[in-house]
Write a structure and sequence with these properties.
- By secondary structure, the protein is α+β, with helices and mostly antiparallel strands.
- About 35% of the residues lie in helices and about 25% in strands.
- The strands form six sheets. Strands 5-4-14-15-16-13-17 form a seven-stranded mixed sheet, sandwiched between helices. A three-stranded antiparallel sheet has the order 2-6-3.
- Helix 1 runs parallel beside helix 4 and helix 9 packs across helix 10.
- Flavin-adenine dinucleotide (FAD) binds next to helix 1, strand 2, helix 5, strand 13 and helix 8.
């Protein structure tokens, strides 16, 4: 396993649960931070529970998330509750610094897992004898299967020649944390402005994550003054933060929209962001990574692991990607956001159903033609 972020760690833990012996390499030491919106969508809770990790995350103070509030600056947002599915409704706000450290700790204590942090994988290949080989900073390792979970800009996917993207228009994320003396608001909130969105959610105690998701044309504003421009934009579009204190560094990441020409071939598998990532706007990257991790481990015991994983991966990602593309269309045009908000006031179920498509709960056919027309015309 290459990478011990949520996808790689979960894939290792699921594989070990299935009886495999696993080696995990990560180039960083833990705890380490990762720029992220830090909302675990409800569809990610079952895999977490199956790994016996949900209680630990809850007792670490992860606040519940009821749904998403969408709005325009200075206007009252509309609330779109998460859909209920298999008794699951709430997501969780998870501070990545603690969440990823907890996963790494679990890797370190598992009897079937050998975890090597601070060990970079430099290459991966399948030899002529059909054995997969990982070249790490500490030497070569041969394995029956290799899962590559090294994140959005996966260097190993690139070395395999499987990278597609990034596709324009390029988008970037700029992320920081704030503390606020106010009760925890259990909603993810997205405020749409021209060329960017402010994305915020509670993570732990009175901390809130606030991210800016920006199109390329707004990035010039941050040249040489990332932190001060970030602060200005957040406080202008979300005046509540004028009384909040910013804590820790501000980090930038992107561009997004990477895909892979294949996600499994010759005993090498891509899991999580390494297997493709559209955009943070749907906030389902971690949940999807956890579900791919479970599919990867399940495929190992089949007679055709690569084929089974490719099929499962497609099932898990096809519709969520289409929902992300749709929301991106909306985000590009404030007039469309306005119509979406009007449509929501008339038929509050439509956006909840759309979130359900994004979580992989059901297909697009759950939304009626009438609801589609209303969503895009507001009438
Ligand atoms: C701005 C932003 C906001 C987001 N908001 C949300 C959200 O609200 N909810 C959500 O679910 N998702 C969100 N996402 C997506 C989410 O962050 C990712 O989907 C998630 O982190 C993917 O996990 P991963 O394990 O696949 O990759 P990562 O978390 O990136 O982990 C990859 C790991 O691989 C290691 N690694 C890299 N290269 C090597 C190498 N060569 N050798 C060894 N180790 C290596 C890294 O050190 C790292 O630990 C957001 C993303 C961004 C950028």
């Amino acid at each position: 396993m290459i990478g011990a972020g949520p996808s790689g760690a979960a894939a290792a833990l699921f594989a070990a649960q299935g009886g495999q012996r696993v080696m995990v390499f990560d180039k960083q030491s833990f705890p380490r931070d990762k720029p992220c919106g830090e909302g675990l969508m409800p569809s990610g809770r079952l895999p977490l529970r199956e790994l016996g990790l949900e209680d630990a995350v809850l007792s670490g103070g992860a606040p519940p998330l009821n749904g998403v509030q969408f709005g325009l600056p200075g206007r009252e947002p509309v609330e779109v509750p998460f859909p209920e599915h298999d008794g699951e409704r709430a997501g969780l706000g998870i501070r990545r610094l603690g969440f990823d450290a907890r996963l790494a700790e679990r890797l370190g204590h598992h009897s079937r897992i050998q975890f090597s942090p601070q060990t970079e994988a430099r290459d991966v290949r399948t030899d002529a004898d059909g054995v997969a080989t990982v070249i790490t900073a500490a030497g070569e390792v041969r394995a029956r299967f290799v899962a590559v979970a090294d994140g959005l800009r996966s260097a190993l996917r690139h070395r395999l020649g499987w990278t597609v993207g990034p596709r324009p228009p390029h988008r970037y994320g700029i992320v920081g944390h704030w503390t606020m003396d106010a009760p925890v608001d259990p909603w993810v909130r997205i405020t749409f402005d021209t060329g960017l969105e402010v994305y915020e959610g509670p993570v732990a105690g009175n901390q809130r994550m606030v991210g800016l998701l920006c199109y390329q044309e707004r990035m010039g504003e941050f040249g040489g003054r990332l932190e001060s421009r970030y602060r200005e934009i957040v406080q202008a579009l979300r005046p509540e933060f004028r009384n909040a204190e910013m804590i820790g560094p501000v980090s930038a990441v992107g561009p997004f929209w990477y895909q892979a020409s294949t996600v499994a071939q010759d005993r090498i598998f891509l899991v999580g962001d390494a297997s493709g990532f559209t955009d943070p706007i749907t906030a389902e990257g971690i949940a999807t990574g956890l579900r791919q991790a479970r599919a990867f481990a399940g495929a190992l015991s089949s007679s055709s692991p690569e084929r089974d994983y490719r099929l499962a991966h497609r099932r898990l990602t096809k519709d969520p990607r289409r929902v992300a593309s749709l929301l991106l269309r909306l985000s590009r045009t404030p007039a469309l956001v306005e119509r979406g908000i009007r449509a929501h006031r008339r038929a509050p179920q439509t956006l909840t159903k759309l979130l359900g498509v994004g979580f992989g709960y059901w297909g697009f056919d759950r939304i009626t033609p009438r609801e589609w027309v209303r969503l895009f015309t507001g009438r």
